[in-house]
Design a protein that fits this description.
By secondary structure, the protein is mainly α. The protein is built from 4 helices and no strands. The chain has one domain: de novo design (two linked rop proteins), CATH 1.20.1440.
């Protein structure tokens, strides 16, 4: 992720995170472990943003909460795959650190959204 100011909108920030993950994907032939981890990372990163887009169009608070929980789960999964990349030093692992920093920030934001939505619905 670049050092420019981060957007306030969580949907836009998740979108930019997913794009950064895709752009970090190594070009060319990958060994099977690298391919598996990068594919899983791309799937979870893009899914998190898709959940947020769907939540914005949700018809109820319960649906909004469920979709944001899904976004949080997917972002946690992204962080997991980034940890594996860094720890095992798979292909392009050096690109994982700034992505992992951003995933941690997004996890904190999403956890707050989920918690506050849940608390406000009691």
């Amino acid at each position: 992720m670049d050092k420019s100011p981060k957007p306030y909108d969580i949907k836009e920030r998740a979108f930019l995170f997913a794009c950064a993950v895709i752009n970090a994907y190594p070009r060319g032939r990958l060994d099977s472990a690298s391919h598996k981890v990068w594919s899983q990372l791309i799937a979870s990163a893009t899914s998190s943003g898709a959940h947020l887009e769907e939540a914005a169009a949700g018809g109820s608070r319960a649906q909004f909460l469920a979709l944001n929980r899904g976004a949080l789960r997917e972002m946690r999964e992204s962080n997991y795959w980034l940890r594996i990349l860094r720890t095992t030093e798979l292909e392009n692992f050096h690109k994982a650190e700034p992505l992992q920093d951003e995933s941690r920030e997004l996890i904190a934001i999403l956890a707050t959204i989920v918690r506050r939505t849940y608390e406000n619905g009691k």
